[in-house]
Each structure stands twice: as C-alpha cells, then as structure tokens.
Amino acid sequence: MSFNVTDDHPLPDGYALHVGVPDVAAYCRLRTTSGLTPRSLQAARTGLPNTLYGVHVAHGSDIVGMGRMIGDGALFIHIVDIAVEPAHHGQGIGSAIVGAIMRHIRAVIPAETYVSLMANGGAWRLYERFGFENVFPDARGMATWISAQ
User: Scanning 16, 21, 76, 98, which has its CA 20 to 30 A from the CA of 63?
Assistant: First the structure.
C-alpha cells in the first residue's frame, strides 16, 4: 500500500494529532516505552526547543506518539524520534506522524533539501511508503555517542 504525502492519514476516534513537541517528561517516557534509546530530562530540555517542526498524538489526555524534524531548514533535514506507545501500535499513528511531518516538509522546505532518517528494526517499511529509500551501498549511516569524560 502506498501513501501520498498529501493524504490526511486519519486517526481512529479518540486520537488527535497536535503540532508541537510533547513536554519533556512525556518525550523521555515515549522514547523509553517505544524502545528508543532513553534520554535524560536535561538533554531533552536542551534539545527539544531546537526542533524545527514536531507533532505528537494524544489518546484522551495521554500522549501516545511523537515525531520531530531537525536540521538547518534548507540543506539538510533529519526526521527523528518517531515513537508510538506499543499498546497503540496498529492504529495508524506512525503513518499519521510521518505524514504530518512530510506534508510540512513539502509545504515549507526548499525542493533541493536532503531529508534523511535512521530506520530502527522494521520501521523502514513505514518510511518506504513515504518515498524513503535505503541508500546503502552508496552511503552508510554512521553514528557515535558523546559520553561524559
């Protein structure tokens, strides 16, 4: 099944997508419960305000999903923190989050911008539906962690 970035990706009743990043505590909780690497409250307090665009999904009063766009706004954009509470998987939340971010990118970011992400586990299947491709062997994703001395 292919998604068009102009589709609305409707959520089931009881779910609502909101523009903006979740609060620091919800952000840290979602990273942990969704299986992403845990982050400290201090790192989140420093990093989240630098988000170019973010969305989160609420189920009632609970924040159950999120995603962010970071970068310089013209040359490079990186999509990060796509996370959904496991109890809410299979509801189209991930598609709604990525769809909202991609609609924003198409609306405000220059056409020559390089948009990238790192796909954990089987998440590449979701991203592929939005036009993302594996760049290996032409490029290889690499990373390092900065640790306390």
Answer: 76
